[in-house]
């Protein structure tokens, strides 16, 4: 995302829909959890797809209520392992973000009985859609959640 403007955020959601198709989008993203940031100010722009069809629902989580965000908060914790506070995001590219996300999604979670989010997703969703989104399997001994991952 180039900036935290709503038009850029909507463009990313539209891109995902274009990449995997409306039916797969609805299956993967029945609800999008977000905060009350201005980039999410108009829920209809997110909830209606490219052709005007309902594709998802937006749920605004309350400030300081991490229990409303499920595993999302754990992902934020893992992001901070790679991008500690005060790290500039100016040099981040889509490729670097994708690499970090793949390492995070291949990290086993106690909440999933040691299973990884990516393997859990592959049991429920189309592998082709996952590949189109750039999601890849990374072996456990290759997971690296430290700042030098993106060097």
TrEMBL record:
SUPFAM superfamilies reported in the protein's UniProt record: Ribonuclease H-like
GO molecular function, one term: nucleic acid binding
Gene Ontology BP terms: DNA integration; transposition
InterPro entries the record matches: Integrase_cat-core, RNaseH-like_sf, RNaseH_sf, Transposase-Integrase
One CC-aspect GO term: cytosol
Ranges for domain Integrase catalytic: 1-125
Protein name: Transposase, ISSmi1
């Amino acid at each position: 995302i180039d900036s935290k403007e709503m038009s850029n955020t909507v463009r990313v959601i539209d891109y995902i829909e274009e990449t995997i198709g409306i039916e797969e989008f609805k299956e993967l993203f029945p609800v999008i959890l977000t905060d009350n940031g201005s980039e999410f100010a108009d829920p209809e722009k997110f909830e209606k797809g490219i052709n005007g069809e309902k594709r998802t629902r937006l749920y605004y989580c309350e400030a300081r209520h991490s229990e409303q965000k499920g595993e999302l908060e754990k992902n934020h914790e893992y992001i901070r392992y790679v991008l500690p506070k005060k790290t500039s995001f100016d040099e981040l590219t889509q490729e670097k973000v994708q690499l970090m996300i793949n390492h995070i999604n291949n990290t086993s979670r106690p909440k999933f009985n040691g299973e990884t989010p990516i393997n859990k997703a592959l049991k429920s969703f189309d592998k082709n859609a996952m590949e189109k989104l750039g999601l890849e399997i990374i072996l456990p001994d290759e997971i690296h959640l430290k700042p030098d991952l993106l060097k």
